[in-house]
Amino acid sequence: MLCHTSQEQSQQSDAVQDEVLLRYYAAEWDRYTTGANYINRSFTYLNCHWVKRERDEGQKGVYPVYTLALVQWKSNFFLHVQSKNGKLAGAILRLVERQWNGESIDQGLVKKVVDSFVSLGLDESDINKASLDVYKEHLATPFLEVTEKYYQQESEAFLAESSVSDYLKKAEERLREEEGRVDRYLSTETRKQLVSKCEHELMWESFQNLLDFDKDEDLQRMYALLSRIPEGLEPSRKKFEEHVKKAGLTVVSKLVGEASEGADGLDPKAYVDALLEVHRKNSETVTRSFRGEAGFVASLDKACRESVNWNAVTGPSTTKSPELLAKHADMLLRKNNKMAEEEDLEGALNRVMILFKYVEDKDVFQMFYTTKLSKRLIHGVSASDESAASMISKLKEACGFEYTKKLQRMFTEQTDMSLSKDLTDQFKERMQQNHDDMDINFSIMVLGTNFWPLNAPNNDFIVPPEILPTYDRFSKYYQTKHSGRKLTWPWNYSKNELRTNYLNQKYILMTSSYQMAVLLQYNNHDTLLLEELQTATAISKDILVQVLSLLVKAKILVNEETDQYDLNPSMTTHICLSDG
């Protein structure tokens, strides 16, 4: 009877195809399994005892009645239909493709046929255990192949005619449809593979365009899509890293091109602000569009590290960026600094620390910053003690106690400063007691070399006769107070005031020691040659040329002939001198 029925079914199935075949197959499946269930219940005793005993003894060809019915259905009818080039699965796939193209289909019909594929799976080692071997072989594998091919073609066609934004919306919609398809009529075991196939084919290639034009909403959509794929975000992380790196290198190159003196004359503030803006913009992208995902954070950090340390300003060296960053931090912390007045200084220091994190050679930053801090403290030009202390605290938090030990010692230890004031007062009092009149007013700071980075210049400096008596008297006085100690005079740190007496209008010139030494030579001369000035001061030629250039620029001296410098008798402009 079963054999006769199977022959009739095979003949009928050969005569129909597509949806008609599916309806015929589903109806026959319902009729057959219903009858098999009735028969199976009639042989419950047989199933529980004889069949169990036979299988326990190793008779693998023995099955419970309902399972035997499924085995017969599979071998006599299912495999016959499928042998015609996968006719049954092909009918399902063509019906699904119609749904892909927007047609309505009988999803209940599809589910009933698909369920039969699942039911026909048999695990010979344990007949009570579900098996998806038939479903995977005859339906899932070709279904995934067809899905991949379909979405590949659709993606190419859609991208050719639509924007990336519209494409991403379409991709989201398609992924929801496929997940719904699994829920409605496919085995849940197919979900992961099906969605993965769709995600791969629905990936798009315009990531760079979205980054360039700050398409946050589309980037969020892209992230949501790619995060579903194992390792799907990695290519985007790499592209994002390259994007950030390129942005950093580009802004620095632009700054160098706009600077009149190239990289050497670059404004530290402009350099730092440009790199910070690149970081700010892309950090917001990571937060908003990529949900702060750790991989994108790492890509941002790596790109910033490279663009900060190796760019058009630094060249192959890793010392230029920390130098410029230290100079910028120093400018922020100086008195009368417009940046400190116009914006939150604490916030500005926090932004400095953002770049500091990426600096490769932090020891170079420490060297420059220590020198800058020492000058601010010596000359009393720090904007505020609180801000200076805050910066040291931030550096300590980033690099540890040892890194900031000298900075902390210079800033917090006031002993050197107070002792120096007492020493100056005692010296002046001794001079008055000895009736040694001093023609000049002066104050001196004696600082320990263990913590203060005060290096005396390599060249010999001839102390001008006008201050030599005071210099000698103090040196002798100090030795009487502290025998065995050696005083080193870092003239390059000293500041001086000079008064003009040769002009109708009196001027007070704020000068460095080197500028003072040069200008005092003009007490006895109106014209001096470069060689004569070098001999009189012992200042190295390269430094002396810089000093003279600044004095000429201030119109105190006139340089009309090569290596000849004349005192300007008609100077009428306001004088402003910086360190020479």
Number of helices: 25
Query: Could you describe the largest sheet, including whether it forms a barrel?
Result: 3 strands, antiparallel
User: How many angstroms does the end-to-end distance come to?
Assistant: 114 Å
Helix content: 55-70%
What strand order characterises the main sheet? 3-5-4
**β-strand number:** 5
Q: Which series of helices and strands comes N to C?
A: HHHHHHHHHHHHHHHHHHHHHHEEHEHHEE
* Helix/strand class: mainly alpha
Instruction: Write down the overall geometry.
Output: elongated
Computed over alpha carbons, the radius of gyration is 44 Å
Report the β-strand fraction as a percent range: under 5%
What does the average pLDDT come to? 83
Low-pLDDT ranges: none
Helix-strand blueprint:
Layout: H1 2-15, H2 18-42, H3 44-56, H4 65-82, H5 87-100, H6 107-119, H7 133-161, H8 164-185, H9 191-201, H10 207-212, H11 216-226, H12 234-258, H13 268-289, H14 294-309, H15 320-332, H16 338-342, H17 345-358, H18 362-379, H19 385-399, H20 401-412, H21 415-433, H22 468-481, E1 495-499, E2 508-512, H23 513-520, E3 527-529, H24 530-537, H25 541-553, E4 557-561, E5 564-567
Antiparallel strand pairs: 1-2, 3-5, 4-5
Helix pairs in contact: 1-2, 1-4, 2-4, 2-5, 2-6, 6-7, 7-9, 8-9, 8-11, 12-13, 12-14, 13-14, 13-15, 15-17, 15-18, 17-19, 18-20, 19-20
